[in-house]
Amino acid sequence: MRPRIALLLLFVCTSGFAQHLVPQPIFEAIAGEFSGEAAQENDRQIIQYHRIQGSPMMAEVANNVVLAKLKSWGVESSIEQFPSDGRTRYQTYISPMGWEMRSGELWIESVEGMPNFQPVRLCRFSDVPMCVSTYSKGGEWSGELVEVEAGTHDKDYLGKDVKGKFALAYGYAGDVVREAAIKRGAIGVVIYPPPGDRSDHPDMVRYNGIWPRAEDLDKTVGGFQISANQYTQIRQLMQHGVVRVHSKINAALGAGQLTLVHAWIRGTKNPEVEVLITGHLDHPKWSANDNASGSADMLEMVRTLQTLIATGRLQRPEITIHFMWVPEYFGSVAYVTEHPEVRACRPSGWDDPRQTPPDKPYRPPDACVAINLNLDMVGEETVKTNSRFYITRTPDSVPGFLNGMMADVLKQTRDAGLTAPTGSRNYWPAEMAPYAQGSDHDVFLGLGIPSTMLGHDPDWTHHSSEDTIDKTDATEFRRVGVLAAAASYWYATYAGRRDADDWMQASYLGTADAIRERSRRVAQIMEGPNSAGARARLQANLRAMAVALDEQQRSVDRFMENGPQYAVEAKVFEVKMLEDAAPAHAAGPAPRRLTLPSIYAAAFQSIAGDDKTWWDAQEERFSSEAPGGGLPTKPTFELVTFEAINFMDGKRTTSEISELLSVEFNQDIDAAWVERLVGILGKLGFVKVD
User: Fold this and answer.
1) DSSP-assigned beta bridge partners for residue 166
2) pTM recorded for the entire structure
């Protein structure tokens, strides 16, 4: 491998590449126009709305804030809606009920043994919007509080009667409602913080939702969240006797609409090809970082690029930059279900489980999505939230140049030392991170589109009443917004040209990033126990690096032979690198997915018997702590399952898939494990084996 490396290093040193992919004048134009204060003001306007999927207020913020601003700037933009009624299905996702929330209160009305007790209010929606569980049923109830621990399993109810009473629990509200109300007749639920969850913030109220389906409408109830201090107060009162609460919720559940906002900066050469920028607009009132911040930064990205193009400081891109504000997951899944033209720009094709379009290779000028940048929680003041900025890598199932490109623009942004006039001057803790799930980029990865999430981790305010505007930072809005705008504009303007120098530099960055990642895995393997599985994973990673170098050298040779007019063959080396990581096997079962990952968690509720026992054991095996509300520190079962399904294209055998998973996650995963997973997914109708 030494001659290959020497040749590559020589070529890098003599090729005259710019320091970064994005030309510095373009980066500086974007940075000079982008306002962190304007993005923060967008955030301030968005958080005035209780932005729940399927709700009228979600439609209001989409129309009155996002679309109104886009129209005022002269940007091509529109609203799109899909049915959301607790019944309509998009892939494995059942759309949420429409929910119109007006007011709600929860009181402790009496305590047995305390005749002079004065009622105490625990929740008022107008004061703390998160204290009412989203999708709560409207009505008025009074009843005894019965504590049921987590309230999510049969064992929690042994010897306890909750019929006609309120269940006091620490499980997720939707799970508690299913067990306590739908199965056992409780009239409401009161949710307190799980043990050990951010105990140093005892007045924090956590975000919970009930998510009823249409068939649950008669049995579902209302729910409330209380703080740790309020729970302590209730426990003290329970020592005197039965505690009764009174609740009143003015809300309506029914058919609603998933509301999406689109904005386009159309390309001049191939407008049907897109760089897609996404961010979810939904979340309870306040929720300034999650994810008003991503939605707000996207608005300022649009304004910045539109202004620079209109004034002639930037040329119009050659492919389209498409911005899309969505209800998280539900909106993205509905969009790709109803828009079959949304697919990866892959000449070799991508196995597409949707009914249309027919599975066929992409051929220019077919419509497709080149890359997806998903902005989710990007405006945090990192000192106040004890957080860091990250960009997720793509998983092995979806190779491409995106990782190398984003790492380069991240470095360029860090080198620029950007701040905002009213923002912090904090050191910027920013880095590339392993692929992590949890937002809309997952949907597009399931289509083979290279996708990344830009966010912050950990964040002690996550999904809580503490996620407020004072935790945001104009400087962070500017840094992340400039980074995302520069990366998307470069790809839309330069990648479409396939200019030799640009693509050769991009291919080097892609190769370098891939080799760095494989080297990290090699080091991790060598630091662990020596076993047959570890040695096989070591060989696979070394083989992948050799393939990457061979493909890169061939590109160099063609460049040297044909001169600067040579158009580099993009992405080929990374695809081959992936396939070569697992050696060919004899014929065996080759499962094919019948739906897009990620799969809606509720879709697994019907697993039972031995399958449920195995499933629970895998969740325990791949369990991973997420300290301070942050990303998991190790691969979760949900993540491994996602990748396994994404590899199931009807061509790879279970043995090949098991080796790919083993290499990616540095775990011993054999073909029998994959076959057991395929069997369970097959019973659910998500996978088939021809």
Assistant:
1) 145, 188
2) 0.94
